[in-house]
Amino acid sequence: MAKRRITKAEKERIRQILDRLDMTYSREYKCYLNHENAWQLLIATMLSAQCTDERVNIVTKDLFKKYQSLEDFAKADLKELEKDIHSTGFYRNKAKNIIACANKIILEYGGEVPRTVEELTSLAGVGRKTANVIRGNIYNEPSIVVDTHVKRISKKLGLTKEEDPEKIEFDLMEVLPKDHWILYNIQIITHGRGICTARNPQCSECFLQDLCKAGGATTAKRQTKTKAKTK
């Protein structure tokens, strides 16, 4: 894959974006999925596919009391586990993958959640997004997590033109400094929930508007319409 050429002006724009994100949302690492250890975060992240973090946290509050170890999940009755996680959606596949994942970690990794992308993605139901959540939050390995917020807002900011999450991940790895790989996801989730929402983005209130490719375009269109009306 050819390395992307980034101009000096673009590097400065990206630096300003990151500075403003840091200033507004801080550089504090925060995981939105409640967990006490690596395997709990792994299972919570698997449950979060096509489901909100809020719903997952409601489900895992009781789930992790009932299943208190990887061994408990490995020995779980499939139908019973399906009922336990039903409200997270896609519960049949999730339950099957969680049981298979727990068994493999116990049998092949001595009960310890692995840390490399290759090892993590070899587990049932674990893709690059889930692998990077574990690497970043548990092992503090610089990792970029591409969720719906990161995908949508990164495209608006002009940091990628891709649709595929893996391609977006590699685009962001090229343009973002490593010390922001984990932070970027945390900050963009907050931004996507509060200001740049999917259904009704508050562009006029956004502190990134003048640096945003989509926000700038929206402003230009509004100004053109306003000028046309006043003529």
From TrEMBL:
Gene3D superfamilies cross-referenced by the UniProt entry = Helix-hairpin-Helix base-excision DNA repair enzymes (C-terminal) (1.10.1670.10), Hypothetical protein, domain 2 (1.10.340.30)
Q: How is the cofactor bound?
A: Binds 1 [4Fe-4S] cluster.
| Binding sites annotated in the UniProt record for [4Fe-4S] cluster | C196, C203, C206, C212
Q: Indicate what this protein is called per its UniProt record.
A: Endonuclease III
One Pfam family it belongs to = EndIII_4Fe-2S
Cofactor names? [4Fe-4S] cluster
One GO BP annotation of this record:
base-excision repair, AP site formation
What's this protein's family per the entry? Belongs to the Nth/MutY family.
Domain HhH-GPD, residue spans: 47-194
**Which keywords does this chain's UniProt record carry?**
4Fe-4S, DNA damage, DNA repair, DNA-binding, Endonuclease, Glycosidase, Hydrolase, Iron, Iron-sulfur, Lyase, Metal-binding, Nuclease
Cited NCBIfam families: nth
Q: Which InterPro entries match?
A: DNA_glycosylase (IPR011257), Endonuclease3_FeS-loop_motif (IPR003651), HhH-GPD_domain (IPR003265), HhH_base_excis_C (IPR023170), HhH_motif (IPR000445), Nth (IPR005759)
Question: What EC number is given for this enzyme?
Answer: 4.2.99.18
Q: Which domain of life is it from?
A: Bacteria
Instruction: Tell me which species this is from.
Output: Anaerosporobacter mobilis DSM 15930
Entry GO MF terms:
4 iron, 4 sulfur cluster binding; class I DNA-(apurinic or apyrimidinic site) endonuclease activity; DNA binding; DNA N-glycosylase activity; metal ion binding
Q: What does this protein do?
A: DNA repair enzyme that has both DNA N-glycosylase activity and AP-lyase activity. The DNA N-glycosylase activity releases various damaged pyrimidines from DNA by cleaving the N-glycosidic bond, leaving an AP (apurinic/apyrimidinic) site. The AP-lyase activity cleaves the phosphodiester bond 3' to the AP site by a beta-elimination, leaving a 3'-terminal unsaturated sugar and a product with a terminal 5'-phosphate.
Catalytic reaction(s) noted? 2'-deoxyribonucleotide-(2'-deoxyribose 5'-phosphate)-2'-deoxyribonucleotide-DNA = a 3'-end 2'-deoxyribonucleotide-(2,3-dehydro-2,3-deoxyribose 5'-phosphate)-DNA + a 5'-end 5'-phospho-2'-deoxyribonucleoside-DNA + H(+)
